[in-house]
Structure formats: structure tokens, C-alpha cells
Amino acid sequence: MDWSGRIALSTYRMAGYALSPFAPLLVALRNRKGKEIPERRKERYGKTQIKRPKTALIWVHAASVGETNAVMPLINQIAQNGTTVLLTTVTVTSAEVARKRLPKNALHQFVPFDIAPFVNRFLDHWQPDMALFVESEIWPYIMTELSRRDIPMIVVNGRMSERSFARWSKFPTAVRSMFSNVPLCLAQSEEDRQRFAQLGVAQVETTGNLKFDVPPPAANEAELQRMRQMIGNRPVWVAASTHPGEERLLAQAHYRMAVRIPNLLTIIVPRHPERGEEIFKELSGIVPYSQRRSTDPELFPKTQVYLADTLGELGLFYRLSRVAFLGGSLVRHGGQNPIEPARLGCAILHGPNVSNFSEIYRALDQSGGGESVNSERDLTNILARLFASPAEIDRRAELARRALRPFSGALDTTMVALNPFLEPLKINAELRRTNNQ
User: Fold this and answer.
1) Considering the chain, what is the average pLDDT of its residues?
2) pTM, two decimal places
3) Residue 428's pLDDT band (boundaries 50, 70, 90)?
4) Interhelix angle 116-126/140-148, nearest 10 degrees
5) Which of 62, 127, 182, 315 is the most exposed place for a label (fewest CB within 10 A)?
6) From the candidates 36, 43, 67, 246, which is the catalytic residue?
């Protein structure tokens, strides 16, 4: 590492020390917003009462629900071999996914803040044999400390958006110093591979997106049937994972469409349900017959826009509709993942900003299963055309499903790439058990 990289990372580390006394205040603020589990807040400081198992231990870190679901089949395969997996996540919702889905010899903790005393305490206790970081999780102190302790860190299902790449490229020396200690990055796409390589990762392979090998999100069957009865024969579409600025456009599009499509029901599922109250106020000013699921779960016959501001129900709403608009694409976010609705039989619509999943959207659009809209007027015209021809919706939904087939197989490819790193861990663990007998 050259002197400028050392200075940048040293400055980051010292800033962490300076800010560490304020960490409890940050946790308190997050707790007020429902982003913490009070009885587990000490995990943010690297503390735990769980003893480290004597087996080989692999630390897997995923940020939120999407990454956690994506990596769960990989965790299952690793854990089947007798290796303990420690999964860390950031969000409360991902912790709930972990509670429900982790296999027997896997544990969950919240990731500590990327501050030296907390990270050191965490690593001193768990002493992982290897770390697998999912998608685009980059934490400077954690990465440098893993390197100092000679713990290999591998990026799996690696994703590097244009925005993240541009941000990290502003600190080329420090970033190259961090990534020079990563022996392998398994990227989702060729674009991701090139970006990780430019940031300094020596070996980058394109293994595909693990999310293609994850079963579609489940839905409560009783609730699904109940909602279908309440909707009846109404034309319905879902706008999923929407971001600020999009809900107003979607409500305006509904207002236009309602004149052309009688009894139309628009379901809006925001990316962050905690915004429900502010979104509902905005919707009500445009479409008087709006309803909020978190306060009124019963769908009223007169409801025109149904705001689904609840957690973990996207599988339900994708199954209620044959047309899905993916949010984060009419604003400068980069788009949300279209895999789930496509696999559940939806025709896909999206805005022009889809750089986060450009390869997938390109395949969907080229197949005819997806289509880009640039404005509220575009969305209105396309939806009116689709609802006028149910056969066209069926055709597009099937094309979308077929477009995803070539992307499957990432789980097997990832395991093949990881085996040279996993096998020595199993051998060393067996030797430890033999010596302890």
C-alpha cells in the first residue's frame, strides 16, 4: 500500500475512533425509527453472548433482505458440509429472514459498525476462517483488518452500479489498497466484472446472479385467495419498490387511466414502507379513493389506489397482478430487481434508469417481455393497450419468463469457484477435531 492509501485509510480509522462515543446515540435514533431490535443493540458494537463453535467458521455478510435471500441457498450448501456459517446483516427485516430460513449450523448477528474497536471486538470473538461479502458491501476498516489478520475476503454475487463505481473511483489509491487484498470476486455480469477489476481486484470472474436461483417470494395462500375475492374481475397492476418522486407520477397515471379503464385498481408497494404516511397524503391529493394497507387491510370496493405499505408481501401482490412496473427507474436510482415478478408471470414495465440491473432489463426488453416507459403519459398509453388485450399480457409474461432462463445456474458456478477456498477449511477443521480428541 502506498503512502497516500495509508493516509486515507488511517484518516478513516481515526475518524471512527473519534465517532465511536456517539454510536449509542446513532443506535437510539435508529431504534426510534424501527431500524433496531433493542435487545440486540450491543451487536452493533461487536458484542455477543454466543460462543464461537470449534468448527471452521465462514463469515457471510449481506446488507438487506434481497441480498440475504440471494445468498441463502449458498449458505445452505456450505453448511451441509459441517462448516459453521455466521451471517451478518444490517436491517431488521433481513434478521427476520435469517431467523426463518437459516439452516441448523448457521448463526445470525447484526454487523458491527465499521469502527475499529467494534470490528476488532467482533473479529477477536468470531475469528472467521474466511469472509464472503455479498454484492456491493464495501467497508474500509473491515476490509483492511481482515487483510491484517490474513483472513481471505471474497466478494460473491458482486454488483457494482455506475453510481457506486463513480463514487469509489474518486478515491483510487485507497480503494485499490482495499481491493488488492481480495483474492477473488465473483461478479453478476460482465459490466460488474470490469468495474471491480478497474477498482483493483486481481481476479474477477463472472458467475451470474444468485437471485436467479432463489425461489420466488412466497405468499400466504389464505390471504392470496381472500385478496383475489375482494378484487374480483377488476383490472389490476402493481407498481413495486417505488422511490420518492415516483408515487406521484404513478397516481397521476392512474388518474388518467381510470377514464379509459373502468374500475382499475393500482397497487403501489413502496421500497421503504416506513414512508407510508407521507406517500398516502400525496396519493390522496390526486386520487381521492386511496387506501393504506397498514391501517385498512380490507380492500374496499371503491378503492382505486391501494398503498401496500407493509413488509414481506411482494410475493402476494405480484401474484395478484399480471403487469408489474418496477420502481427506482423513473428517478435516478438505477432500478429495482425485476427477476421476482418475471418469474411469477408478470409482464414487466420500467423507466429508463435501470443501470443497477441493465443486463437483465436488456434481455427482458429484447425478448418482448419488458418495455421501457419514459413518462407518465407513456405509462398510461402502454397500460391502456395491455388491458385492452389480455392475450398480449399473457404473451409478454411468458416471454419475460423465458428471457430469464439463460441466467440460471449461478449457484453451481459460484460453488465451483469457491471450492478451492472451502476445501482447505474443511481439512483444517477435521485436523483440529482429530487433535482435540
Assistant:
1) 92
2) 0.81
3) low
4) 40
5) 127
6) 67
